[in-house]
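Notes from hallway chat w/ T.B., transcribed later so I don't forget. T.B. wanted the structure written out for a chain they're using in a teaching module, and asked if we could keep both sequence and C-alpha cells in one place. Agreed to drop them here.
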Amino acid sequence: MNLKNDSLDKHDDWYKKAVGGLWQEIGKLQYDFMIKQGLMPEHFFLDVGCGSLRGGIHFINYLQPGHYFGIDKNIDLLNAGKNIELIKNNLFQKNPHLLHVENFDFSIIHHSFHYALAQSVFTHLDVSDIAKCIQNIEKILVQGGKFYATFFENKSDVQSIEHLSLDGIHFSTFYDKDPYHYNFETFTKLCKETKLSVMYLGDWSHPRNQQMMVFIKN
C-alpha cells in the first residue's frame, strides 16, 4: 500500500486539519500500538471515532477483508475517508465497514469484536457520554475482548492543565469543558456496574500527551 505524503494533497487535506493535524503520525502510531497489543489479521476490530481514517487506512490494509469497522458521528469526516482515502489507497477491495453512529448506539453494528480503539474520543466527552460508550461497548466485545481508549490525565485534580505537544502546540485541558481531562479513578468507577475491568497503560508516545488505558471484558 502506498500512503502518500500530506504535502502532496494540499487541495483535499481539510479533513486532516479538522482532526488537529499530525494525521499520518498519529495514524501510524495507533496501528503500531495495536499490533504490539496482539491485533491479528483475523481479528474483528472496531475503530471508535475513526474520522477520516488516519488509523483506518493502516488497519484496513492489515486486517482480513470485512474485519474492519469504523464508526464516527461526523458524516463529513466519514465521507472524506470513503471518497478520498479508500480510493487513494486502493482499499475498497478490503470491504471495510464505515458507519455513521450517533450517541454510541453500537446496536446497529450487529457484530462482536476482539479489539476496539477510541483515540482522541474521551478527550471530547463528559463523564455521562463516556459512561454510555463504556456500557454499550461492553455488549459487543467478545469474552476477553479489549477496548483501548486514550485520555488526558489529571493527576493533581486541578481545573485546567497547560500542555505543550511534541510539535510545539500549546493547549489547555479542563475538568468541565472540551477538551476534558480526568483522573484514572474516574474510569474505574465507571466500570463498577459492568463486566469490564480497566487497566492503566500510561504513556504510549502520543505527541499530544494523551495517555492510554484498556478495558477488558471479564
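Follow-up for T.B.: The chain has one domain: 6-217. Might be a good example for the class.
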